[in-house]
Design a protein that fits this description.
By secondary structure, the protein is an alpha/beta fold. The chain has four helices and six strands. 24% of the residues are buried.
Length: 171
């Protein structure tokens, strides 16, 4: 029995939605397999991806876009690289990486309707992108100042405590 092409279901791609980190930014967003990366920049106190972003990623999984989210409170330089102030969060940006890096910002809240229209304008070619120079970089976790972590112990300033006499070197 021969199956007609119209009866074969369309292959579904896996949903592309990750939390951005220093390690996966170059491979997932700024060099990924898809042309445009949409990043949801989340304010302090938000520790997981909003459901509306996850739903949008699922809806557009077969399109040439990939989705990511970022807890932006410790990545101020990255956020400001798009001309966004920290008090404007949450916000979504679309980044096109190539010979000329470009970006666009979603004007409005992170609701499924406004984000859906934003992605539709991008895919339809109606979006105006601005130049992005230089490409923003994320700070690695070990360089981020922690407000919920213990402060680092101060250096002792060259004291001899903790050393045996045989470990000391005469100069």
């Amino acid at each position: 029995m021969r199956v007609l092409p119209s009866t074969v279901p369309r292959k579904q791609a896996s949903t592309s939605l990750v939390e951005l980190t220093y390690d996966n930014l170059p491979t997932h967003c700024f060099g990924g397999a898809k042309a445009i990366c949409l990043i949801a920049l989340l304010p302090a106190g938000v520790n997981k991806c909003p459901e509306a972003v996850a739903e949008l990623a699922k809806r557009h999984r077969n399109d040439n876009v990939q989705f990511a989210w970022l807890k932006a409170q410790k990545q101020q330089e990255f956020v400001e690289g798009f001309g966004i102030k920290m008090d404007q969060l949450p916000m979504m940006v679309a980044v096109k990486v190539g010979k000329r890096n470009r970006f666009a910002k979603l004007e409005g809240e992170l609701a499924i309707s406004s984000m859906g229209g934003f992605v539709d304008r991008i895919l339809g070619g109606d979006m105006t992108f601005a130049a992005l120079k230089p490409l923003p970089e994320l700070e690695p976790a070990y360089l981020q100042g922690g407000d919920d972590e213990e402060p680092a112990a101060a250096a002792t300033g060259g004291g001899d405590e903790g050393f045996d006499d045989e470990d000391k070197v005469e100069l």
